[in-house]
């Protein structure tokens, strides 16, 4: 199936990605006081920003599979709010959503569209966990590797640790079974699918905190 998109959607995705990455960069910088803005922004973009974007694209891809018109639209005021809240020590992130139009979607199809997002974050959490473990395996405590390789491994380790935790939280947070969260539609479609996705998110989150 060919992914259908538009110039407008690509712009909205890029704006949301950059804004969320900036918000978490501010948050991480305020908490760690490392003042390495460019490096922190790159880490945020590869972990948090990527998690948000791929979450929304997963919804879009499954929706299009069921013949729906679906495109992501950013919420500029909410993106601004996310950046402003970062200065207060937390981020309220609601960057936007995939707009779906198909009056013939069944409850099962809507549930599968909804669960695609959190399961994508679960998969990302495990992938980042594997990256972190690989970096730890290659980079023992007393390593005589060249400085460039050491720096690359430290960067990979940091990306893996943050990426696994953030995506685990995103998956679990979105499985809340009420309101505008994905979990509401999943729960309404299949209790078994809801339990599987929720337990997968909890497992990913627990494993990420063992790093």
Please provide a written account of the structure:
This protein has helices at residues 7-32, 37-65, 76-86, 107-138, 147-174, 182-189, 191-208; strands at residues 69-74, 96-101. The longest helix has 32 residues, at 107-138. With 211 residues, the protein is mostly helical. Strands 1-2 form a two-stranded antiparallel ribbon. The mean pLDDT is 92. It starts with 6 loop residues before the first helix and ends with a helix.
Task: Give the helix/strand class.
Answer: mainly alpha
Strand arrangement within the widest β-sheet reads 1-2
Helix count, per DSSP? Answer: 7
Separation, N- and C-terminal Cα atoms: 38 Å
Mean pLDDT: 92
Classify the helix fraction into a percent range.
over 70%
Oligomer: single chain
| Alpha carbon gyration radius | 18 Å
Task: Characterize the main sheet.
Answer: 2 strands, antiparallel
Uncertain regions: pLDDT < 50 for 5+ in a row?
Answer: none
Secondary-structure element pattern, one letter each: HHEHEHHHH
Overall, the morphology is globular
Proportion of residues in extended strands: 5-15%
Number of strands: 2
Give the arrangement of secondary structure elements.
Layout: H1 7-32, H2 37-65, E1 69-74, H3 76-86, E2 96-101, H4 107-138, H5 147-174, H6 182-189, H7 191-208
Antiparallel strand pairs: 1-2
Helix pairs in contact: 1-2, 1-3, 2-4, 2-5, 4-5, 4-6, 4-7, 5-7, 6-7
What's a quick, concise take on this entry?
By secondary structure, the chain is mainly alpha-helical. It has seven helices and two strands.
List keywords for this structure.
6% strand, mainly alpha, 2 strands, two-stranded antiparallel ribbon, 211 residues
């Amino acid at each position: 199936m060919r992914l259908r998109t538009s110039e407008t959607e690509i712009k909205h995705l890029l704006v949301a990605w950059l804004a969320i990455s900036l918000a978490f960069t501010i948050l991480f910088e305020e908490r760690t006081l490392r003042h390495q803005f460019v490096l922190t922004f790159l880490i945020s973009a590869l972990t948090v920003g990527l998690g948000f974007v791929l979450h929304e694209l997963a919804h879009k891809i499954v929706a299009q599979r069921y013949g729906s018109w679906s495109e992501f639209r950013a919420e500029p005021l909410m993106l601004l709010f996310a950046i402003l809240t970062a200065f207060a020590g937390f981020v309220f992130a609601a960057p936007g959503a995939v707009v779906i139009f198909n009056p013939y979607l069944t409850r099962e199809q809507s549930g599968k569209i909804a669960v695609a997002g959190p399961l994508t974050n679960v998969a990302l959490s495990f992938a980042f966990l594997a990256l972190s473990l690989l970096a730890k395996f290659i980079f023992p405590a007393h390593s005589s590797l060249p400085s460039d390789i050491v720096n690359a491994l430290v960067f990979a380790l940091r990306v893996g640790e943050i990426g696994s935790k953030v995506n685990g939280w995103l998956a679990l947070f979105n499985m809340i079974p009420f309101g505008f969260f994905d979990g509401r539609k999943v729960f309404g479609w299949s209790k078994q699918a809801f339990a599987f996705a929720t337990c997968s998110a909890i497992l990913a989150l627990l494993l990420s905190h063992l790093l």
